[in-house]
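User: Second chain of the day. Same drill as before.
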Amino acid sequence: MSEQLSRLEQVFGFEDTAFRRYMELSNTRNASPNMFMDLSSQMEHDVHPIVQCAAGWAAAEAALLRLRPSQLTKQASHPFGARQEALAAAQSHWSGVDDAFKRMRLAAVTPERAADFWGFEVRSQLALAYLPSMKVVAGWFSGEDPDPSDLEPMLKNTKEGVVKIGRAVMKPTVHDINFNTVKKGLGYEIATGLLMQNVRPLGHIILPASIRQDNNRAGLLRSDIVGVSAEKWHPKMLVGVSGHKDGRRPQSSRRHRLMIFARPDLALYPGRSPLDTLEAFVSREAGVLPDADIGRRLDDMSQVLAGRLAAATILNSS
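Assistant: Same format as last time:
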């Protein structure tokens, strides 16, 4: 086992070995649903809400794992029923952490820790909001595509849940640099996910990155969003959302990864904050967007971001 610790372990000092094994996974090419479910089961008795979030994500990754043809010859296919059970387990873990995070946030000894706990609290709520979309992907990967008449309502439920969380994230005004740093990160990620999913015909299902992917100890492997192509043989795309303003692209491209930069990619207009983009999207969903030009700009941004995700997916499929 590597002596390097994930950022979460460095900050919070976890001793749960299953948590550590899960967080250290960087290559899941040979992973199996049973491996993820075993890790989830081993973490379920740890009462710390971050470990509970990880237990939920390990179960969710079992549900969302695409088995390669070589794996299908060695083990039974992971059927939709088993994937649904894994998502139900994930939901149970995520649903039980809100109160614990609130208590830890209020009891935190530093503003930085309080802001961290708020971020985890919101991300557990986002995981729950994306469950309808996770069920779509679980159906895809088990060969049971949802009926077209069910697909749009499921995606609508996801959007409504994510918009509600986006509205809540934008609401509080706190004069603390730690809180506002977390708020920006959440706002940028929520805005990116909403914009990327807001296009038809459907190109990708957008999901939040798992706690393992979001906090990977290898910085180049960290991601905030996962794009699952409607063309199911395409690879999953990891999407990183950077708060850097200059928009410089990494010198070496990394397979299965797309970088989105805050100012050039998420700002409605030059000089505007990407948080204004999230606020405009939330306002439009509430029917109170005052400027039709802003609505058209949101649609244009959606097309550009979805197009970049589609192009990156095709490039990485070759």
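The chain has 15 helices and four strands.

User: Great, on to the next one.
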